[in-house]
């Protein structure tokens, strides 16, 4: 597919051309031309009427299949533009959804993408119906009045159906999550802008081989795996990446996927350190916006500057320092760390996770009574691997006080020792 891209920049909307081109590339489009304009939003066409004429000429000349706007179009603008240009028009969010569509593998991801698409189309079709009622004879995307009405009904019906199906999948997911919660293991969630290296990091930590590629939105599904930090067993989750101004209809459609982040005990916010500082800053704030929307902003957070293998040590240090200044005063910040997921340079991250789990409410004080002297050594080793040994009294066997993850209790009781929570 061959497209023309349109970017309107204003004081309020700082659209990045680079990112827009990256999105077009990720969607598999051949870009024939990019038209840029600096002006405030025109209510009718988003861009100015002069630019509209320019685009008309370009369409005649280059014969693209589509025109893609980097800005969000209102339903009325999308309709007006379509009427003027008589060509498929999409905006940034439809572009994102097209990419999602290509990458959706699981049933849940596919349904979520379809729901988001319909949610996006609904106001457009409503607008078309409104125009038709007002006597506009243009119709909508080649449909006449009757067809538009039928299409509207179809969208409503399909949305209801998808919500039902998603609800079922959500219930299953909830059961799995409950089970995990009962196990009591600390859950670490990877969050951050798309292409920051989250999946590569999960792979590096767990030995998994989730797809990781240099393109936007490689991951749409959620993966949760076990991993160990200095012998302590934890869970880690990788999920869909963020983007600037992620609109509520996408957040809603991907709610159950993103919920994994909400349920996490620790959030690792991954950033691509190899980018220029203004980009890192922009993506950092965009990620915070999404976390705010998910009501997960107060979770213990580690900020991980990834891909440090691509920059000098000084550069990495300076960026970490700048980030520290940005996050200064956030009570939930555990640390800013420098890592390379690709080269498995993860020492700083491991230390930060250790710091975070030490203060996790999932760690509690227990008194462990070991009657069989032969088991004392094994129990002590296990405690060291999962928590902190506070005190030990040797007698027949041993009486131990320790901070341990509630998830390990089952494993200790299996050894035949008594475990009691210290109130
Ligand atoms: N040089 C270098 N490249 C990295 C590092 N970590 C990830 N990458 C590369 O960055 C690209 C994106 O990595 P992913 O792991 O797919 O990123 P992601 O955050 O999961 O992206 P989405 O799933 O799209 O949200 C891939 O080409 C990785 O090989 C790193 O530490 N160093
Ligand atoms: Mg990924």
From TrEMBL:
<keyword id="KW-0342">GTP-binding</keyword>
<dbReference type="GO" id="GO:0005737">
    <property type="term" value="C:cytoplasm"/>
</dbReference>
<dbReference type="InterPro" id="IPR042108">
    <property type="entry name" value="GTPase_HflX_N_sf"/>
</dbReference>
<feature type="binding site">
    <location>
        <begin position="192"/>
        <end position="199"/>
    </location>
    <ligand>
        <name>GTP</name>
    </ligand>
</feature>
<keyword id="KW-0963">Cytoplasm</keyword>
<feature type="binding site">
    <location>
        <begin position="217"/>
        <end position="221"/>
    </location>
    <ligand>
        <name>GTP</name>
    </ligand>
</feature>
<feature type="binding site">
    <location>
        <position position="199"/>
    </location>
    <ligand>
        <name>Mg(2+)</name>
    </ligand>
</feature>
<dbReference type="InterPro" id="IPR016496">
    <property type="entry name" value="GTPase_HflX"/>
</dbReference>
<dbReference type="GO" id="GO:0043022">
    <property type="term" value="F:ribosome binding"/>
</dbReference>
<protein>
    <recommendedName>
        <fullName>GTPase HflX</fullName>
    </recommendedName>
</protein>
<feature type="binding site">
    <location>
        <begin position="238"/>
        <end position="241"/>
    </location>
    <ligand>
        <name>GTP</name>
    </ligand>
</feature>
<feature type="binding site">
    <location>
        <position position="219"/>
    </location>
    <ligand>
        <name>Mg(2+)</name>
    </ligand>
</feature>
<dbReference type="Pfam" id="PF16360">
    <property type="entry name" value="GTP-bdg_M"/>
</dbReference>
<feature type="domain" description="Hflx-type G">
    <location>
        <begin position="186"/>
        <end position="361"/>
    </location>
</feature>
<keyword id="KW-0460">Magnesium</keyword>
<dbReference type="GO" id="GO:0046872">
    <property type="term" value="F:metal ion binding"/>
</dbReference>
<dbReference type="Pfam" id="PF13167">
    <property type="entry name" value="GTP-bdg_N"/>
</dbReference>
<dbReference type="InterPro" id="IPR025121">
    <property type="entry name" value="GTPase_HflX_N"/>
</dbReference>
<dbReference type="InterPro" id="IPR030394">
    <property type="entry name" value="G_HFLX_dom"/>
</dbReference>
<comment type="function">
    <text>GTPase that associates with the 50S ribosomal subunit and may have a role during protein synthesis or ribosome biogenesis.</text>
</comment>
<comment type="similarity">
    <text>Belongs to the TRAFAC class OBG-HflX-like GTPase superfamily. HflX GTPase family.</text>
</comment>
<comment type="subunit">
    <text>Monomer. Associates with the 50S ribosomal subunit.</text>
</comment>
<dbReference type="InterPro" id="IPR027417">
    <property type="entry name" value="P-loop_NTPase"/>
</dbReference>
<dbReference type="InterPro" id="IPR005225">
    <property type="entry name" value="Small_GTP-bd"/>
</dbReference>
<dbReference type="InterPro" id="IPR032305">
    <property type="entry name" value="GTP-bd_M"/>
</dbReference>
<dbReference type="Pfam" id="PF01926">
    <property type="entry name" value="MMR_HSR1"/>
</dbReference>
<feature type="binding site">
    <location>
        <begin position="340"/>
        <end position="342"/>
    </location>
    <ligand>
        <name>GTP</name>
    </ligand>
</feature>
<keyword id="KW-0479">Metal-binding</keyword>
<keyword id="KW-0547">Nucleotide-binding</keyword>
<feature type="binding site">
    <location>
        <begin position="306"/>
        <end position="309"/>
    </location>
    <ligand>
        <name>GTP</name>
    </ligand>
</feature>
<dbReference type="GO" id="GO:0005525">
    <property type="term" value="F:GTP binding"/>
</dbReference>
<dbReference type="InterPro" id="IPR006073">
    <property type="entry name" value="GTP-bd"/>
</dbReference>
<dbReference type="GO" id="GO:0003924">
    <property type="term" value="F:GTPase activity"/>
</dbReference>
